[in-house]
Design goal:
By secondary structure, this protein is an all-alpha fold. This is At2g35280-like TPR domain-containing protein.
Amino acid sequence: MDYFPILELPEEIQALVVERLAGNSFTDLYGLRASCKTMNALAERSRVNHFYDVLSVPRRLNMPSELFKTCYTERNPSTLYMKGVQFFFIFNLQEEGLAFMKLAADEGYERAVYTYAMTRKIFWGDEEYFARFTRESVVRIGKLVRSLKWAWGLTHSDEFLAKRDEFISTVVPSFYSCQCVPVMERDWVLWYIENSKGDKMCNRCFWIKELGLFFREFEPMSVIMDTREW
């Protein structure tokens, strides 16, 4: 197997490679750090902490709590997102939480773009950020966001639950009454909404389905890690 001669590149290019690797794979970054002293020194620079996706770090690595704080100090988008979700959905600090999510979204952090878009739609009826997604991308990112189970038994706020109940009673019926494609299965409480229509449903029904999945599966962030301390 041929190996890429990274050490033959200019140092500033080596640094960029390390930064991009930090954003793509925490495990691969640690492998690179172990490869030689030069790579370890580049990976130790504080700026690299900006690029970690801390939510993609394998749990077995047991990321130290101080590293979360260090990443937040470097305005790391994934930690901005964590803080935003916790502030908005747990501490009921909606203005601050939404601002943190938007900061992460404006950095291009996919989880934040998705969650910010869904939050704006659910609480204020704003669909502006929906235009940033293709159907394929929102399905992929939505599964990624909703797969993160960090609630530890916490439930959503009364306001969120009221929005969910309103959505089920007033919006979901229009999903089934729309004749864009045949209905394969009816489900009034979101249990099987993703199986109710084929992929060629209209755009409105597609977003109703995605909102239904968000209401059904998205979990608030546990207070075991209190981001107010960052």
